[in-house]
Design a protein that fits this description.
281 residues; mainly alpha; 2 domains; two-stranded antiparallel sheet; 11 helices
Length: 281
């Protein structure tokens, strides 16, 4: 009996420690947002965001092959700034938990991207989103706007980091989400010219993955045994197989035929790079 009692204490202790290491606050946040209503036919209206994208996103026409956003032009247009603010306020008035999971996925991606554009426009002109800090402590370095509260949904204060890492990644467990979120930088996946909806999200994410991986931002062969790939695959390696081999397999899956063949046979060195310059024209 004594041995059994000790064993129970050990098991309980391990479980308790495991929960602490997992982050009980983060787990509570994830559980809060996991609710959905799959019987709901309600749709979130992303028309205003589509209008903003149509007016200010400059799709790839130059040698860079990168979609760029005209933050300066938007900042100069008070009417469209008001439209963006109203759209963000509208989204914050929606409780996504009362919608279907597909509707939620589009909702969160659009909210993240629209908030990012608003954050940059408010601070513009800046050279990089990493230079934007509203609440930087005196003498501290700026680490960007991702951990600052920019929205409130269903009574919960939300940062950009919350949306990406406490909602989208853990709930959907879909590594293609990385190709839908724009961090307003050259090396980021393109800000999509089409607003996400429940019907088009998975198709747009697939297209975004192929566009990114087949651009040198995603994969760049320097030599047959040396490639430079996006730092995204380092920062979020757990989403791509948790090792180099898993990342390479993912890249090959979405690569065009020639690149895919080189990747399938690749067993060389990998380096990571990221260009944080603002994705402006």
């Amino acid at each position: 009996m004594q041995v059994g009692f000790v064993a129970v204490i050990i098991i309980v202790t391990v479980l308790f420690v495991g929960n602490v290491n997992a982050g009980p606050t983060k787990l509570k946040s994830i559980l809060f947002w996991e609710t959905s209503d799959e019987t709901s036919v309600k749709q979130v209206d992303h028309g205003a965001w589509q209008d903003i994208l149509t007016a200010y996103l400059r799709t790839t026409t130059d040698s860079s092959g990168i979609n760029k956003f005209d933050y300066a032009a938007l900042k100069a247009n008070a009417k469209d700034i008001s439209k963006l603010v109203k759209y963000l306020n509208y989204l914050q008035g929606v409780d996504p938990r009362t919608h279907s999971r597909a509707e939620q996925k589009a909702y969160w991606i659009n909210l993240y991207n629209a908030l990012t554009v608003k954050v940059v426009v408010d601070a513009f002109p800046v050279d990089s989103i990493r230079d934007i800090c509203r609440n930087r402590a005196l003498g501290s370095e700026c680490s960007g706007p991702w951990n600052e509260v920019h929205a409130k949904v269903a009574g919960q204060d939300l940062t950009l980091d919350d949306i990406e890492n406490d909602i989208l990644r853990p709930i959907w467990k879909d590594n293609l989400i990385h190709y839908g979120l724009s961090c307003a930088s050259y090396s980021c996946p393109d800000l999509c010219e089409t607003a996400f909806t429940a019907k088009n999200t998975d198709t747009l994410l697939d297209t975004g993955a192929r566009r990114y991986i087949n651009h040198n931002r995603g994969v760049d062969f320097m030599e047959d045994d040396f490639i430079i790939i996006s730092s995204i695959y380092d920062w979020y390696v757990e989403d791509f197989g948790n090792n180099k081999q898993g990342v390479i397999k993912h890249l090959a899956r979405y690569a065009d035929k020639g690149l895919a063949e080189r990747l399938k046979n690749f067993n060389g060195a990998v380096d990571y790079e990221y260009d944080w310059r603002l994705n402006r024209p």
